[in-house]
Amino acid sequence: MTSPNHPSIRTNRTGKLLDIVLILVVTIASLLCLAPMIHILALSLSGNSAIMSGKVTLIPIDMDWTAYKAVFGNDQMIRSLVFTIGMVSLFTMIAMTMTVMAAYPLTKKQLKGRDLFLFVIVVTMFFSGGMIPEYLLVKNLNLLDSIWSLILPGAINAFYLLIIKTFFSSIPLELEESARMDGASHFRILLGIILPLSLPVLATISLFYAVGRWNGFMDALLYITNSNLYPLQLRLYEMVMNSQVNSMLEGIGTAAPVPESLKAASIMFATLPILLVYPWLQRYFVSGMMIGAVKG
Description:
Elements: H1 7-44, H2 48-52, H3 66-72, H4 75-103, H5 114-126, H6 131-140, H7 158-170, H8 173-181, H9 186-197, H10 199-215, H11 218-223, H12 232-242, H13 246-249, H14 259-294
């Protein structure tokens, strides 16, 4: 019979204790990350008196949907939402196409000047022209007050490009050589072999591109003056920073929500759509980042 003090039993107990500690740490960290969003959600669903008295923490008090009625009833917010969804979708497709088309040739050792191209790409990760030169470039290209000013300047991210390039390099060369023996072109190899095997990293980088574009507002603040082209985050930024909530309160009546409740509801309105995309890509997320960053 094994003694309770046997080394293997002590090791199992230590392992279980460490598992419990790790679970507690991860749980606490997760709750801390979720706490701000839960607080915003509670504010958006709470009544005026509870918000004004500072009673709202993580649980709604005096449940009230008036703020959401004001947000969903505002034509400008809905217009910005529709515009942002279309703009993010177009941006992600263009960005992924350009990134893949740039990453694939860089995996070929026979490409002349490949090391120079990679060096230039890496340099752009650490140095940029700056805000003023970028604005002047967009202005000289006549892209101001255009959806293309929000798409073209950020269509390729150097870091994402290197991740996809590393992933492509990890695919066995025998597959490509076999296809070339059958007369397949580079374009056919890319579409028929490389891309189907790269779904994890493609889905992950697509999510990164989409989230980055969805949350961006600084470029829109610089390049866009036409209110019909305001993305959702810029609309939200103006509301939060300038307290421009009067137009949204029109027609609500005497029970209109206080600005804090309306701001919180607008934040949830702008955050939830992109969060709904994540579950569809979750299975690719970890594997895509790990393989693309480690192999090669």
